[in-house]
Design brief:
single chain; 236 residues; alpha/beta; Rossmann fold; binds S-adenosylmethionine; SAM-dependent_MTases_sf; RNMT_CmcI
């Protein structure tokens, strides 16, 4: 029953549109049978009947990357063979396991680091933590990143927490990224472009000559739209 007397409300931004439940549940078809009769083939609903984002998973862990995004990251992993993947924003942890497993399947060593201000929602079992490390910290505080300086390259740095992004990008360009490394801003560029086009354009231009947009991956999925940035050769 709805509690109409409720006085305390969580900040829904906490969930960033993910839903409150970090546990993966297989899709349930509440409004249609799974086995549709073929003598009514033409009447079958064409939509999924459940939230598509909720069904994205890797080995039973929710993973908030859609199949196009997974395919693009797969191709980037094949091409770059990163020795380090850092992801800001862990949530249930499925994507960390996915990056670790991809590297293992492709046969190269890769350490995967996840940073989140709330690791209580991480679902990775202890037995699945090989080559994965977690750090509970807030991205708003640049001191969070100081321990990242001496990591193996090539390196992919993914912002999927969306807090303090451009200051983190500045820090990464100054202290972390080598030529050919990636900084990837997931999901947010279309929103920022919609609501703050001038600032976004100005902020990105501040990195001209230091980063470029990799046009192979920058439009490979809507989640990666115009947010795949590659470190250029440092100025001589
Ligand atoms: C979109 S989810 C991450 C999803 C995950 N990368 C994936 O692909 O499955 C965003 C996460 O960012 C975290 N987050 C939000 N603001 C943060 C901040 N200021 N510092 C650290 N983590 C933050 C949230 O706790 C949440 O778990």
């Amino acid at each position: 029953m709805t509690d109409t007397t409720r006085q305390d409300f969580l900040d829904l931004n906490l969930f960033r549109g993910l839903g409150e439940d970090p546990v993966y549940h297989p899709p349930v078809l509440a409004d249609r049978p799974r086995d549709w009769p073929l003598d009514r083939w033409a009447e079958a609903p064409r939509d999924l009947g459940f939230s598509d984002f909720a069904r994205y998973q890797w080995r039973g862990l929710r993973m908030l990357k859609d199949p196009d995004t997974q395919a693009a990251y797969h191709d980037l992993m094949v091409e770059l063979r990163p020795r380090t993947v850092i992801e800001l924003g862990v949530y249930s942890g499925g994507s960390l396991v996915w990056f670790r497993d991809m590297a293992e399947l492709m046969g190269f060593d890769c350490q995967v680091l996840g940073i989140d201000r709330d690791l209580s929602r991480c679902q990775i079992p202890e037995s699945e933590m090989k080559n994965i490390s977690l750090r509970e910290a807030d991205c708003s505080d640049l001191a969070t990143f100081e321990h990242l300086r001496d990591l193996p390259h090539p390196l992919v740095f993914i912002d999927d927490a969306h807090a303090n992004t451009f200051n983190i990008l500045r820090w990464s360009v100054d202290h972390l990224l080598h030529e050919g490394d990636y900084f990837i801003i997931e999901d947010m560029i279309p929103y920022w472009y919609r609501y703050s086009p001038k600032l976004l354009t100005e902020y990105l231009a501040a990195f001209a000559g230091e980063l470029s947009m990799d046009m192979v991956y920058a439009n490979a999925s809507s989640q990666l739209e115009r947010g795949v940035l590659r470190r250029s050769a440092p100025k001589a």
